[in-house]
Design a protein that fits this description.
It is built from 2 helices and 7 strands. The radius of gyration is 19 Å and the shape is globular.
């Protein structure tokens, strides 16, 4: 079976991306409907969802009509039956990054969205349990943000064992 060329719905900005058959750059309003359209078209698996902080690369190359923001959510969808991959890159905002959840479409994104929230501070509207997943609940800040202050945590060593 030779897969047909992959296309996005009309109006969605697309571009060539590495390690994917199609790259899409939807607006925040197009994001969930686009993912839903791909799911209905046979993309049965969301293999990855992650956050990116482009604090020092706000001038990165983007397709025409896409306004880059500091934070971006990257979603990789896979169709095993069609042998195709789609990468979706949605601009999440600058100071208070927020996107809608994909939990209703792909329940497996629950932990991935919590990780993006925990480490980058991206809020996911409609998420059923948007709590920290890696850091302690009382941790202040989001440690993978580029402007997160690198602190010093004292390391405690055990006393070295004597000769054997």
């Amino acid at each position: 079976m030779i897969p047909l060329p992959l296309t996005a719905p009309p109006g969605v900005v697309t571009a060539d991306v590495l390690a994917s058959d199609l790259g899409c750059f939807p607006t925040l309003e197009e994001y969930v409907p686009l993912v839903s359209a791909f799911k209905d078209d046979g993309f049965e698996m969301c293999v990855d969802l992650c956050g990116v902080d482009y604090l020092e690369h706000l001038d990165r190359p983007m397709p025409d009509f896409v306004i880059p923001t500091r934070f971006e959510i990257v979603v990789n969808l896979l169709s095993l039956s069609k042998k195709q991959r789609v990468r979706i890159r949605v601009q999440a905002g600058n100071n208070d990054p927020t996107v809608d959840t994909l939990f209703d479409l792909y329940p497996g994104t629950e932990a991935m969205e919590r990780e993006a929230f925990d480490l980058y501070g991206v809020l996911f509207n409609g998420h059923p349990d948007l709590t920290r997943i890696l850091m302690p609940e009382d941790w202040e800040g989001h440690p993978l943000r580029k402007d997160y202050a690198v602190g010093k945590i004292p390391v405690q060593f055990k006393e070295a064992p004597g000769p054997r």
